[in-house]
UniProtKB/TrEMBL annotation:
It is found in: Cell projection, Cilium. The lineage of its organism: Eukaryota, Metazoa, Ecdysozoa, Arthropoda, Hexapoda. The keyword NADP does not apply. Residues 276-297, 535-575 are annotated as: Disordered. This is Trichohyalin-plectin-homology domain-containing protein.
Amino acid sequence: FIVLIMEPPPAAPREPPPKDGIGPRGLPETYHVNGSRPRFDCPVREICKKAPEFGGEQRRGAINTLKDLKDTQYNDFFIRCDRRSLINNVARRVDLCMASYQEDLKAKRQRLTALLTAEEEKNIRLFVEQAQAGAEAVWQEKKDRLAYLLAKRKKEHEDKYRDVPISKCVHVQPCLVKMRSKESQEGQLYQMKENLAKKMSEIEIEKMWHAVALKEADALAARMEVDAMERLRREQECAKYSKDLIARRKEQKRKEQELLKEESKKLKELFEEYKRKEEADERERQQKKIQAGEERKAAIRERQETLAKQQAEAKLINDTWDSLSFMGIMDEKNKEDLRKKKARELNICNKHIVELKEEKARIMEADDPLFEAEARKIQDAMDQKRCQEMMRAKKINDEARAGVKEQIKENAAARAKETEAHREVVQYQRQLGAQLDQLVRHRDLTEAQARKLFQAQLLQQIQYNKLIKKRQKQEDLDQRKKCMMAADDYQNEITKIMCREFFSDEIHPFLRKMYSGLKMQEKCPCSKPDYCAVPVRGPKLGDMPKTSQQPNPTENRSEDAGNKVVNPTKSSENP
């Protein structure tokens, strides 16, 4: 809505500045007015008093000027309102654009602030990382040094105890005994599981053969059922097709009969119409003949009436003369004159009538050939028209008969085509049935061959699995024999070592423990990961006798065997 704010009316003109007194600069006599004299001496006032008309004109001029000023102000106001509305619209658009620009600027400022914050955080993080890099480098160097020392110690330990055979490790005897018992137990469990798996596999194979036989029986029954359904469906389709073909033939025959009936009906209607036209033409000719006879009768009747009138006039004249014969001589004379006059007029009239009759007879005789020619022309035209109608009807009948014959031929050709198509369909269905039967036989043969091949392959797979199991069992037995032989050799070697005479009082603590009586604890002392890694240091050189200064190879080997890894061929577990 545009609110029109009306401006207040123009203010009254200001009072004129004084002509004398203190001026605007605060100094007197700064106004210079011509003729500044006292009020009572003003000549203008006297002139105004003396001239009221001049004052009225000035007032009217002032009123008109004020009206013009008001009109100008109103026009300026409305123009200013229109301009203001345009300016308001432009300003509103500018405000919207500025608001959108400010929002966009604010979003960009926020995004820039976020980017600067992330960059500042990244810089701070880099600074902190650079500050902490020195301590981390020292710590990393320590860790690397520790890892290097551990790897070096491990490598030295492996190089030291690499060539020591396990048969020289006396302290591993309990572990070997336990490992052998565990291996024998695992062998028995494996054999039991293998026997159970063999029995279960035989049971599963029997179940599988039973399920396969059931599925084959179900598949055979389903296939026979599908074949029966397919045969029934084909028989139903053949019966339906035969019924449809018979129904179509009946419908076609009915349509042909209806078409023949309609054509015969049309021909009959055309013949009846032609017959009606001929009857109408015949009636018209009869009517014309009757009309011509009536005209002749009317002419004869008129002639008879004319003769009757003449006879009546003659009789009237005779009667008149008979009645006047009894009158006087003058009357007779007058009557005689009148009779003569009448006789003359009658003779003239008779002559005129005879001339008219002769002329009429002559005209009639002259018109008879014309009438006959006209009648002959009309009759010829009617005969020609009747011949044309007959020719047209004959042509229509011939065309209709030709169309019926052509349609009969087309129907016969269509029936022959339908018969040929039906014969082809029957032949195609017979061939299709033979091909389907052949395909079914081939499929049955292929499925039987595939089933036999699968059974043969399954038997071969079973025999191969038995052979593999037998070989695996034989290999396990051979491996166990080898293990037993190796264990016997190891036991013999250990026995020999233990029965050997010692040439020194300083013996290994493990052997001393075994001689005093071996009592196994629940947990082996060497089972700890760092126990065997620590080498056992011998006595000091000052405490040892001279005969024991050189190390005993048996002791060294027994000490070195403490950190030796167990033979992986026996077991991978550390007791």
